[in-house]
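Narrative summary of target 7.
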Amino acid sequence: MLVGHRAGPPAKRWSPSPRDARVRAVRAALTTALTSAWALSRRKAVRAFDEASVAPRRAQEAWLSRAAPSLGGSVYGRALGLSTLTSLDDLRRRAPPTSWDDVAPYVARLAAGEPDVLTTDRVLVFERTSGSTAQPKRVPYTQGLLDDFSAATSPWLDDLFRHFPVMFRTRQYWSVSPAGRAPETTPSGLRVGFEDDTEYFGPATRLAMRQLMVVPATVAKARDLDAWRDETLLHLLEAEDLGFISIWNPSFLTVLLEALVTRWPALAPLVSAPRRRVVERALDREGAVTGEALWPSLQLLSCWTDAWAAQAVPGLRRFFPRTPVQPKGLLATEGVVSFPLWGVPAPVAAVTSHLLEFEALDDDGRPARFVDELRAGAAYSPLITTRGGLVRYRLPDVVRCVGHWRALPMLRFEGRLDKTADLRGEKLSAVVVEAALRRALSGLDVDFVLLAPSLSNQPHYELFLETTAPDAVCGNVASVVEAALLGEYHYRYCRELGQLGPVALHRVTQGRAKWQAAMLARGLKLGDLKPSAFDTTPGWAAVLQSS
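Modeled conformation, tokenized:
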């Protein structure tokens, strides 16, 4: 019997009235018409990607020739001589790789209202980076940048609809997070922040998606997390024709359905009577809250599954044991590096979106490689040049080329380079820590884990762990993590000098909820929280061990 679900006599079989049947028929016809029009709007981008997938260097040269005038006419571009670019190699000779510190002064001038600073295209909006590893940045968006996002999302969605044609007759849920902060503008009055994920798409796609959404974007305006949760659940419960769910963090959806288990008695009276009876019969038949019981038309889930996000997938699978899950590619606020295709082992390079280069992490002395020069098995960090005005901009992400689809590299996300803790010179990165934790936790059922620095007494790292495993097993996890970190030269050196103490274990309860609340207090949005088991800031013991 469903936890929180009140038992009762078998429900009387419900038969739809003629009016109910007509409403569903009209909705189905409208859904099909919208998705068909949406498919037509994607054709140009799909055809361009199809051609680029067999000739990526030619596609990248063509992208640069289109972008060069607006980049070269800007303050930044004129200083580098970008207006007279002749080739990809020419760009590499004239423009050095850049970081956010290099770009930030120019972005500040844009935010103050100065035109033509990074590009001659008009800035439409600024979007805050969603990462939890550093202070959020404001990334300028132009129409050209939005069009280039669509150059990746269009072939992705077209591929999905070809493999899951039933989605043409269903509606969708795309992550709609509570705003978490008041509306924000720049000193010149430009908006900071998109309302929802649909703003990354072109006008035709955006119109279709917003008509097909089961949870409207207005839900994001809720300031109270509990109110947002209940309103989101009510919209989802009413959506008998939900066919596609797109979120970022797998635990975002897990948290929602965990809340449904306990909130069902309060929410049930607010659900329309016919739909409530259908839901109750389905849940009783299934014996638990599952996505398949709630939404029998559900075709696919889209979410992060690589790197540390993989640890959150089993929790999601408890609620969606049979629904296919497709991994996301690497889509940063600054631009798109890769996107998935159904049946392809890993996301492919977004070759029609931006100019992509890749710096090899084995530091072989070669210049950054272009997209057609990647070697299977090697790890890289991307550089992107975008029509938002970023030129050879370093993304602090790690991708590994795991092979090729057609002529495009398949890129698996492995972690981030910018998340480094350095209490005493140990230089621990998220990639190293999360790899150590994956090894230590292999085969263990874990609800929450976090490694973070501590400044109390002798500086050291604290391992916060929530699991039903015995103390002896948890202690062994801490020992395995410590041994793995000792394999890193700088950490071992600090330990040998006595600058750092060993990893200390702390068992916690409700760790995920407490971590989530702390991240929201930092001003991040719920749907944008990135899965991670490593935080570089101290003070987590006071948060995670609170009652």
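The chain has two domains: 18-417, 420-544.
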